[in-house]
Design a protein that fits this description.
Blueprint (H helix, E strand, L loop, with lengths): L4 H45 L3 E8 L9 E8 L5 E14 L19 E3 L4 E7 L6 H9 L2 E12 L5 E10 L13 E2 L5 E2 L1
Antiparallel strand pairs: 1-2, 2-5, 3-4, 3-6, 6-7, 7-8, 7-9
Length: about 200
């Protein structure tokens, strides 16, 4: 049997090509995993740093049959970066406790809608008047626990990473909030509250 160096060079070259393909596969898989890890870290960092604006607390003028009630809301950005181009609109209405239909829509919006920026851990206030006195029948229904005053709205803003964000809230005031006419607390409803 005669030694053929070309034969062994061909085998060695083939093995090198095979090892190269295996390395490309392994490095490609590792690069893909690294890219996924970096994307997850970036997403987690943005979630930690971005603005989170919600209604921190709210109150309402004491309900009697002789006043025009108004809700007073405190917004808070609990995030570590500002909330830009923030708009907030709200509505107040007297309606049944166990609604089977949606509350009236909010509107019409002023044009152009004013915007503000709320810095990290900063706040803003908003008053939402009913615009009329509560009727005697509404007052009696609120005392009886069959009606409540709903305060609801939407906050829209842009976070520091250019993402559009919103917070929808719905709260109510009635016998569940304490003694009507004395208590000024707003209680968040079990539905109608969500954010992205």
């Amino acid at each position: 049997m005669q030694f053929d160096p070309n034969h062994w060079v061909a085998i060695f070259t083939g093995l090198l090509v095979l090892v190269g393909f295996l390395q490309l596969f392994v490095f490609g898989t590792q690069a893909r995993r690294l890219r996924e890890t970096i994307d997850q870290m970036k997403s987690a960092e943005q979630r930690e740093l971005r603005a989170y604006v919600s209604v921190e607390s709210g109150s309402i003028t004491p309900i009697t049959g002789q006043i025009q009630p108004a809700a007073h809301l405190i917004l808070r950005n609990t995030g570590k970066t500002p909330a830009y181009q923030l708009t907030h609109w709200a509505h107040i209405v007297v309606d049944h406790v166990n609604l089977q239909v949606a509350l009236p829509g909010i509107g019409p919006m002023p044009a152009p809608l004013p915007t503000i920026t709320i810095g990290p851990f900063g706040g803003s206030t908003k008053s939402v008047p009913l615009g009329r006195t509560i009727t005697q029948q509404e007052y009696q229904d609120i005392l009886a626990g069959t009606k409540v005053v709903y305060v609801y709205g939407i906050i829209e803003y842009e976070d520091a990473f250019g993402e559009k964000r919103h917070t929808r809230y719905k709260s109510m005031h009635g016998v569940m909030s304490g003694q009507v006419g004395v208590s000024t607390d707003l209680t968040f409803c079990p539905d109608g509250n969500e954010a992205n």
